[in-house]
């Protein structure tokens, strides 16, 4: 187990509610240093479908994603002069110099990237052309890890608590995204109020079509860029660091106020999903999930997937034949007794719970 806040940038620790000091199962199935989705160490993933590899490339892993970094996290990173952050700092400064996707609220992906990301299929983990600009491909790691944003902080390819774990981390992503939006807006409102008052902080959908400027990833024309940044144009790094100082000075109560009712509701959902992830209960009646994917392997075992295509469960073939007996028409204990009487076989409660967590068996 580890504390929830251990997965998040240190800046957040004093700002977030007590809830974040609670423990959550450590996601030990996502063995990032020796990536479980890459061929050399693959585990629990269906390796190919119709002869096409479903594994990830070692020079991308799951980092085929371009984060949208909120101003205050960029500022925290820029203010960190440690050796560990030197490369991340260099890459972020390079991004600032490009003036593409550089706004007072965010460092955002270029329009071209967003367009490709939305329209490509089956690419995740499998193409270097959508690799994150902060990914260090020779070592296979993140250069801005300590300041990563909501998506990167909460993504795992597999979850120890299966579907309950996935729901917990997805809800945490929603809560964190809300925090990033509100805290970045708060900071801009103090430093560059016209940006917020003119509605530039409203969420933008990515482009439907790309212009020549988008395709070439050209910066905004000088005049537009100057209008966007006002008196901070040319001093973007100082602006982001001022955002960091403003956010750092907030109290947990201030943050709660800024997140408002939406934050309270998501926190309640998080509390529920945490309970399910930490102490799951086996339903009284189970049935084999009709959506389950079944892949027979050459050694006679079977890979079953349900809640997540990246997290299949391998079982001996005979065990699958027992699972078929769970039809949702009788209680779990009666099915188990029948399997003992008729097939001299049993499925221990721990195994059933694991299959339920993966939603291979589901509540009837
Ligand atoms: S979370 Fe990403 S890096 Fe970590 S094991 Fe999974 S695919 Fe690999
Ligand atoms: S910011 Fe880091 S963790 Fe997120 S996609 Fe990029 S390299 Fe991966």
Question: What features would you describe in this structure?
Answer:
- The chain folds into two domains: 277 residues, no CATH class; 78 residues, Outer Surface Protein A, domain 3.
- It is built from 13 helices and 13 strands.
- It has 364 residues and is mainly alpha-helical.
- Helix content is 41%, strand content 10%.
- A hairpin with a 2-residue loop joins strand 3 and strand 4.
- The radius of gyration is 24 Å and the shape is elongated.
- A three-stranded antiparallel β-sheet has the order 10-11-12. It has a two-stranded antiparallel ribbon with strand order 1-2.
Outline of the structure:
The protein is mainly α and 364 residues long.
